[in-house]
Design a protein that fits this description.
Aconitase, domain 3; alpha/beta; single chain; 3 domains; binds FE3-S4 cluster; 14 strands; 391 residues
């Protein structure tokens, strides 16, 4: 890679140990992917925050970086392993909470803003078209590339932290026009509506397009929540970190010659694939983290009802605060449902606690099955709430 004079100094250790280590991580990455240079980034989102995934080795690495490291761009976090305030209420043991707080304290010392969410774009971290960023969480990466037109590869936790500490990332992959070009056209001939159907559609497409970036046609309209769900499901079930959707994605591209068609049956098959025969003892809505509009819908559905099983509404702390002002958190919590911030069903230590989960998230089904060994019942947000209150 061609390094500037300042980058050479950073790599030599002149700016301290954390900067040197970060440059070592980034130059190795750049060399693997044949990047010619670095590009400055405006914001960073770091995954690998849950102590459940990091373990003691990850915590040690962060504490070491925090000895003399400081982030130099706007940096926030992906969900952690627990609600940082109400962890007892969601059944997190003390020893886990202690370790998780050590992780958070290391990030705080590094100057990271303690916003633990996979929907930073809903709470003020809204990158613009063409802006280079370094984000980690796959749904946030896919949404920012495909819906906002920002540019990021799917970073790992260490490479995102390194980008935050140095303010730059190797210039390769989805930072470059050529690599963002679609390789396959997808004609959607199915009618889809609601977050869960958009998630199922993304699964149906992703399974066929694999690592090729698709150019998707035929979606007449999509709400922010539907695109949020699509952006979570698509990278989970494909090998690509972005899609182009006609009329939505800001990049100007043309339709590739290779073409596939997605039918109603493909979407129905995806829905079937996500549904196991199971008794539900856990309901989780908010993957990706709920928007304020979803909080309103949930409050409306839960008003005057009581939930009969453990029910989590996962969202960011900022959206919870907004919902609080409107009186919606009171309505939701009066039903016995828990508004859980800073975490989610995939990164909290939930293995063995539940058998069957109801969720409206296709991505949630993947992690519910894979990380936690749950059986999954996949349904709309409205049906999830019905399931939560069903006796
Ligand atoms: Fe977000 Fe967790 Fe789902 S990080 S996208 S709520 S698996």
């Amino acid at each position: 890679m061609i390094l500037t004079a300042q980058e050479k100094e950073m790599l030599s250790g002149k700016e301290g140990n954390a900067v040197q280590k970060s440059m070592e991580i980034l130059t190795s990455l750049g060399e693997i992917f044949r990047a010619e240079k670095f590009v400055p980034v405006n914001s960073v989102q770091i995954a690998g925050v849950s102590y459940h995934n990091l373990g003691d080795a990850g915590l040690e690495f962060l504490e070491d970086m925090a000895k003399d490291g400081k982030v130099r761009v706007k940096t926030m976090l992906n969900p952690a392993g627990m609600d940082l305030e109400n962890w007892k209420e969601i059944g997190i043991p003390q020893d886990f909470a202690d370790k998780q707080m050590k992780v958070i304290n290391a990030f705080r010392k590094l100057g990271v803003t303690i916003t633990c969410t996979c929907t930073p774009y809903l709470v003020g971290y809204n990158p613009q078209k063409g802006e280079h960023i370094s984000w980690s969480e796959s749904s946030a990466v896919c949404f920012s590339n495909s819906v906002l037109g920002a540019r990021t590869n799917k970073e790992g936790g260490p490479s995102a932290l390194a980008a935050a500490i140095t303010g730059r990332t190797p210039f390769y992959g989805l930072h470059l026009d050529a690599n963002r070009a679609p390789k396959i056209t997808v004609d959607v001939q199915a009618r889809v509506k609601g977050e869960h159907e958009f998630g199922a559609l993304a699964l149906a497409i992703g399974k066929q397009t694999k690592e090729k970036i698709p150019f998707i046609r035929g979606i007449k309209k999509a709400s922010l929540e539907e695109l949020k769900s699509f952006s979570a499901s698509f990278p989970t079930y494909s090998g690509a970190a972005m899609f182009h959707m006609e009329g939505i994605t800001p990049d100007r591209v043309s339709a590739p010659a290779e073409k596939i068609v997605i039918t109603q049956k493909d979407v129905e098959d995806a829905i079937k694939f996500l549904n196991d025969e199971c008794e539900v003892d856990f309901v989780s809505v908010g993957c990706p983290h709920c928007s304020i509009n979803e909080m309103e819908r949930i409050a409306y559905l839960l008003k005057g009802n009581k939930v009969s099983k453990e029910t989590w509404i996962t969202t960011s702390r900022q959206v919870k605060a907004e919902a609080e002002k409107k009186g919606w958190t009171k309505i939701i919590e009066s039903s016995g449902a828990k508004i859980v911030c800073d975490t989610c069903l995939a990164v909290a230590p939930l293995k063995g606690r539940f058998k069957g989960i109801a969720t409206n998230s296709a991505k949630g089904c993947y992690y519910g099955r894979g990380s936690n060994g749950f059986k999954t019942s996949f349904m709309s947000l409205e049906e999830c709430i019905q399931e939560a209150v069903r006796k």
